C-alpha cells in the first residue's frame, strides 16, 4: 500500500525594511491625502528599502528567520523557489543569489515571476515537487522591492506599493499540510497592469523607462474581485468543503476593499481575515507570506487551523492554496 506524501509548512519568517513612509509624507510629494488613500485602499503606511538594500537582502532576512523558526539548517534545503518581479539583477536569479548566501548550495533554485501571485505560484510548484518525491525540504520565498520601479510623480500608483519579504519552509510529511493549490493566468489584458521595460521587447524610448508600473486601477479592481471569487469557489469545490470550514483567510494585500469583497463572498467576519495592507501596502509577491508570518507570530493562526491563501496580480495571474497549518 502506498502512503501519500504531503508538504507541510514547518516554519515561516518575514522581514520589512526599517524605513516607514506614511501617507502624509506622500502627500508632500504628490497631490493626494491620507484620507483618500485610506478610504480607497486601506493603506496607512508602507516600508521602503534603504538605498542599496535589494530584494535579495530582504529575502535573506526572511529566509533566515523562517529556517530558524522551522529549526532547519540551510544545508537541508533541496529546493529553493523565490517569487519576485523585482529581481536584484536579470541573472543569476535572486533565488541563486539567496541560495549561495544561505549556504544551501547544490539544490535546485529558481525565480518565479507571477507578479503579485508569485508566492502562491512558488508554493504550488514546491508542493508538486514534494508530493512527487523530487524534494523533501523546500524554501519558498516571496520578496520584492516594488518601490524601485514606481514613478513617484504618479499618484495613481506610487501610493499603493511597499517593500518586504516573507518565507516558508515546507517539508514532506505523511500528514496533510498543503491540501490543494490552484494556479491560473490570462495574458489577454496585459495593458491593464504592466511594466514595459525589458530586454527583448523593452520600450527604450518610454520617458520614464526603468521605473514605471502602468496600471488601469479601476479595471484591475473589477477583474481582481471577480477572479478571486471564482478561485475561492474552485478551491472549496475541489476539497468538497463548505466555506464555514475555513478558519482564516490570508489574502493578497492590495486593497482592503478587494479583501473585504472576498471575505463577504466567504461569509467570513473580518476578525477571521488577516489584514496587513494598512501597514505594508501592496508588497506584491511578498504580501501573502508576510501576512502569513504575521498571523503565525501574533498567535492568531495556530497549528491545525485551515487557511485559505489567495492572490491576484499582473499577467493576469491568480491562484490559491488551501493549507492545514
Ligand atoms: N490621491 C487622490 N486622488 C487620486 C489618487 C490619489 N492617490 N489616485 C487617483 N486619484 C483620483 C483619480 O484621478 C480620479 O479622479 P477623477 O475622478 O477626477 O478622474 C479619482 O481619484 C478616482 O479614481 P479611480 O481610479 O476611479 O479610483 P478607485 O476608486 O478605482 O481607486 C485604486 C483607485 C487604484 C485605489 C483602485 O482602483 C485599486 O486599488 N485597484 C486595484 C489595484 C491593484 O490592486 N493593483 C495591483 C493588483 S495586484
TrEMBL record:
<feature type="domain" description="Beta-ketoacyl-[acyl-carrier-protein] synthase III N-terminal">
    <location>
        <begin position="110"/>
        <end position="187"/>
    </location>
</feature>
<keyword id="KW-0963">Cytoplasm</keyword>
<comment type="function">
    <text>Catalyzes the condensation reaction of fatty acid synthesis by the addition to an acyl acceptor of two carbons from malonyl-ACP. Catalyzes the first condensation reaction which initiates fatty acid synthesis and may therefore play a role in governing the total rate of fatty acid production. Possesses both acetoacetyl-ACP synthase and acetyl transacylase activities. Its substrate specificity determines the biosynthesis of branched-chain and/or straight-chain of fatty acids.</text>
</comment>
<comment type="pathway">
    <text>Lipid metabolism; fatty acid biosynthesis.</text>
</comment>
<keyword id="KW-0012">Acyltransferase</keyword>
<keyword id="KW-0443">Lipid metabolism</keyword>
<feature type="domain" description="Beta-ketoacyl-[acyl-carrier-protein] synthase III C-terminal">
    <location>
        <begin position="236"/>
        <end position="325"/>
    </location>
</feature>
<keyword id="KW-0276">Fatty acid metabolism</keyword>
<dbReference type="GO" id="GO:0033818">
    <property type="term" value="F:beta-ketoacyl-acyl-carrier-protein synthase III activity"/>
</dbReference>
<comment type="subunit">
    <text>Homodimer.</text>
</comment>
<keyword id="KW-0511">Multifunctional enzyme</keyword>
<dbReference type="GO" id="GO:0005737">
    <property type="term" value="C:cytoplasm"/>
</dbReference>
<dbReference type="InterPro" id="IPR004655">
    <property type="entry name" value="FabH"/>
</dbReference>
<dbReference type="GO" id="GO:0006633">
    <property type="term" value="P:fatty acid biosynthetic process"/>
</dbReference>
<dbReference type="InterPro" id="IPR013747">
    <property type="entry name" value="ACP_syn_III_C"/>
</dbReference>
<protein>
    <recommendedName>
        <fullName>Beta-ketoacyl-[acyl-carrier-protein] synthase III</fullName>
        <ecNumber>2.3.1.180</ecNumber>
    </recommendedName>
</protein>
<feature type="active site">
    <location>
        <position position="116"/>
    </location>
</feature>
<keyword id="KW-0808">Transferase</keyword>
<dbReference type="InterPro" id="IPR013751">
    <property type="entry name" value="ACP_syn_III_N"/>
</dbReference>
<dbReference type="Pfam" id="PF08541">
    <property type="entry name" value="ACP_syn_III_C"/>
</dbReference>
<keyword id="KW-0444">Lipid biosynthesis</keyword>
<dbReference type="InterPro" id="IPR016039">
    <property type="entry name" value="Thiolase-like"/>
</dbReference>
<dbReference type="Pfam" id="PF08545">
    <property type="entry name" value="ACP_syn_III"/>
</dbReference>
<dbReference type="GO" id="GO:0004315">
    <property type="term" value="F:3-oxoacyl-[acyl-carrier-protein] synthase activity"/>
</dbReference>
<feature type="region of interest" description="ACP-binding">
    <location>
        <begin position="253"/>
        <end position="257"/>
    </location>
</feature>
<comment type="similarity">
    <text>Belongs to the thiolase-like superfamily. FabH family.</text>
</comment>
<keyword id="KW-0275">Fatty acid biosynthesis</keyword>
<feature type="active site">
    <location>
        <position position="252"/>
    </location>
</feature>
<feature type="active site">
    <location>
        <position position="282"/>
    </location>
</feature>
Amino acid at each position: 500500500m502506498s502512503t501519500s506524501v504531503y508538504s507541510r509548512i514547518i516554519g515561516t519568517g518575514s522581514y520589512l525594511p526599517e524605513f516607514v513612509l506614511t501617507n502624509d509624507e506622500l502627500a508632500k510629494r504628490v497631490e493626494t491625502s491620507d484620507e483618500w488613500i485610506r478610504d480607497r485602499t486601506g493603506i496607512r503606511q508602507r516600508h521602503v528599502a534603504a538605498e542599496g538594500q535589494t530584494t535579495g537582502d530582504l529575502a535573506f532576512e526572511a529566509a533566515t528567520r523562517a529556517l530558524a523558526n522551522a529549526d532547519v539548517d540551510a544545508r537541508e534545503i533541496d529546493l529553493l523557489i523565490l517569487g519576485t518581479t523585482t529581481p536584484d539583477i536579470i541573472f543569476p536569479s535572486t533565488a541563486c543569489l539567496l541560495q549561495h548566501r544561505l549556504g544551501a548550495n547544490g539544490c535546485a533554485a529558481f525565480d518565479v515571476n507571477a507578479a503579485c501571485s508569485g508566492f502562491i505560484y512558488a508554493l504550488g510548484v514546491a508542493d508538486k515537487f514534494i508530493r512527487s518525491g523530487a524534494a523533501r525540504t523546500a524554501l519558498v520565498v516571496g520578496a520584492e522591492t516594488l518601490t524601485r520601479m514606481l514613478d513617484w510623480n504618479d499618484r495613481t500608483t506610487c501610493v499603493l506599493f511597499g517593500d518586504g519579504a516573507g518565507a516558508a519552509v515546507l517539508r514532506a510529511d505523511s500528514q496533510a499540510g498543503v491540501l490543494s493549490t490552484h494556479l491560473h493566468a490570462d495574458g489577454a489584458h496585459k495593458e491593464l497592469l504592466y511594466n514595459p521595460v525589458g530586454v527583448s521587447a523593452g520600450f527604450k524610448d518610454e520617458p520614464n523607462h526603468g521605473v514605471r508600473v502602468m496600471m488601469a486601477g479601476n479595471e484591475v479592481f473589477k477583474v481582481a474581485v471577480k477572479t478571486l471569487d471564482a478561485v475561492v469557489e474552485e478551491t472549496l469545490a475541489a476539497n468538497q468543503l463548505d466555506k464555514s470550514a475555513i478558519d482564516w483567510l490570508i489574502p493578497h494585500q492590495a486593497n482592503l476593499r478587494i479583501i473585504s469583497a472576498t471575505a463577504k463572498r466567504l461569509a467570513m467576519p473580518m476578525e477571521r481575515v488577516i489584514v496587513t495592507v494598512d501597514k505594508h501596502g501592496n508588497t506584491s509577491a511578498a504580501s501573502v507570506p508576510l501576512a502569513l508570518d504575521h498571523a503565525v507570530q501574533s498567535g492568531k493562526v495556530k497549528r491545525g487551523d485551515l487557511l485559505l491563501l489567495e492572490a491576484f496580480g499582473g499577467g493576469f495571474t491568480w491562484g490559491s492554496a488551501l493549507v492545514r497549518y
